[in-house]
Sequence to fold (97 residues):
Amino acid sequence: MDRVTRDAVRVFLLMVVTGALLYWLDTSNVVIYQAVMIALFQVGSTHLTRRILFPHLDLQAIAKKAVVDNSVAAAIVFASVIVFLIAVMFLSTQVFK
Fold:
């Protein structure tokens, strides 16, 4: 199973379990539950977006190389991917306003 499929299954299972728990819990705090589900959806979709757009980038290895080897190029790649993910999350929050 490739990494994108494995991560999609993980995100789907996380959302199903969270959705089931929120369904069975008290409905008086429905706004809080909706906020939690929106945050989970954003994190999951951002993670899958990163896996689809940058399938060969291992951020953990890049971060280790930037720190251990003092590699400026690795630090720039890491920072660029993080800034891209922040932009995706910011734009996805603008949809809910």
Q: What stands out?
A: The helical segments are 3-24, 30-53, 59-68, 72-95. The mean pLDDT is 82.
